[in-house]
Each structure stands twice: as structure tokens, then as C-alpha cells.
Amino acid sequence: MTYGAAEVLRGVDLEIEHGEIFTLLGPNGAGKTTTVEILEGFRDRSSGEVSVLGTDPARGTDAWRAQLGIVLQSWRDHPRWSARDLLAHLGEFYDDPRDPDELLGALGLTAQAGQRASRLSGGQRRRLDVALGIVGRPRLLFLDEPTTGFDPEARREFHLLIRRLAADEGITVLLTTHDLAEAEKLADRTAILVGGEIAVCGTPSELARAVRARSHVRWVEDGRERVLTTEDPSQAAWELHRRFDGPVPGLEIRRPSLEENYLNLIGRAA
Ligand SMILES: Nc1ncnc2c1ncn2[C@@H]1O[C@H](COP(=O)(O)OP(=O)(O)OP(=O)(O)O)[C@@H](O)[C@H]1O
Question: ABC transporter domain spans which residues (predicted)?
Fold first, then answer.
């Protein structure tokens, strides 16, 4: 994909299964929004083949669009409208919309049904955004950085909600995030996009394996600190114990966290 002369996506090759929760993870400017906008039919691609629910998004009809739920980073809707009115209004565009009150109940917003959208807390607003995204019973839900600004509890609840939607209703979810921990907790599979290319794609454990970095083994020998970088710290510690024929002075093994490895990966690939 190019914007003018700038190539911002290269060889992005993805297949997402029905009912899957898939996250697109990557730093600012990696190309997540561009990818998602192409899939949503909001942006024309400069090259490549794309099929979403069996249709090329560049030629998507209204009937095709009605099968998508799209939750953008921010909505510009009428701040004076109540949560229920917004849902009822949007529902009118669909053949078989969900009942606003049932939907608000399912999202834990019954108490806020009559409240103006502008008076909802950040977490409540985001849940209303999801309600707006699913009012038309979509088969595929796009969520663009849905938990930005959430506290840990709100984030956990939001993750449960998304899991429930995928499990109970078979909705396919494509979510973008900057947050590795979010991708790890929520996604069936994740693609890490760096500089317009997929650096890694897989399940949380495949991701962990792919971005695993080397551990540091430190100890003190002849009054000096020594450091060894290795993929097998257990073997290194065993060899040191044998060499010292007992406890190794100052022995310390540090395994980088997945977060550090992710930062390494995006630093290396950028
Ligand atoms: N309309 C545009 N015209 C020109 N360049 C653009 C346009 N939109 C995005 N870009 C560039 O394309 C690249 C990818 O941007 P994109 O918004 O897809 O990244 P992102 O991964 O969604 O980033 P963020 O996490 O910051 O939202 C960036 O270098 C950006 O500057």
C-alpha cells in the first residue's frame, strides 16, 4: 500500500478464521489503521488482493457493509442523545437490529440507558461504542484501539465482553492495539506489524516463542562481575555450578519479559 510515493504496507498476508479474535499489534505508524481501513472498505489499496466475508472491500455493497461492525477510536455522534436513543437510531439502518435495552443489559449499561452519551465515563462510553458496533448483528467486528485509557478493571471487563461476543455469538473480531499484554490475554492469534510488514504472526505461545530473547547469566569470578548471554540459561548455570564445584558467587539469571522482547523486536525491525 502506498500513500503517494510512500510505501506503508508491504507483503501483508493474513487469513483470519470465522469466530476468531485476531489482534493487529504494533507501534505508532506501523500501518494498523491503514490495514483495517482497507479491510473495512474505507480506503482504496494501491495493490494486492483482499477478501472480507467473500467480497473485495473496494467493491463492497450495502448488504456486505451491513455485516460489519466498526468501532472507531472516537465517534462524533450527538452528545445530547441518550445511549438508548443512539442505539435505536442506528438500529433503524439494519434489517434485524438488536433491541437497545437488551443490548445495554448485555453490556452492563442498563443504569445508563437514559443518560446522555457525553456524560458516560470513558469505560462506559467504550462499551456503548461496542453496542453501537454490534446493534446490526455483524458477522465481523472491527475495534480500533478499544481500551486506550482504561483502568485495569475496565480493561479486564472489556476483554471478557469481547470473549463472550466471540464465543456466544460466533462474531469474528479484529482488534488493533499497541498493548502486547492485551494481545496476549485476548487474542486467539496476533500479527505484529512493524514498519508496514508482519514481523510475527501466531497464537500467544507462538508469539512468546518467536519474540523470546536471550537471557543474561551473571556471576562473580576473580572479584569481577561476569555476564553471559544465552538461550539456555539453565544449561549455563549447570556448567557454572560444576566449574565452581558448588554455589556460584553472585549468580543471577535474568530472563527478559515478553514486553522487553517485544520492544527489542520492534526496535530491531523498525
Ligand atoms: N492519509 C495518509 N496520507 C499519507 N500518509 C499516511 C496517511 N495515513 C497514514 N499515513 C502514514 O502511513 C503509515 C501507517 O499509518 P497508520 O495510521 O496505518 O499506522 P498505525 O499503526 O495505525 O499507527 P497508530 O498506532 O499511531 O494509530 C504512517 O507512516 C503514516 O504516517
Answer: 1-220
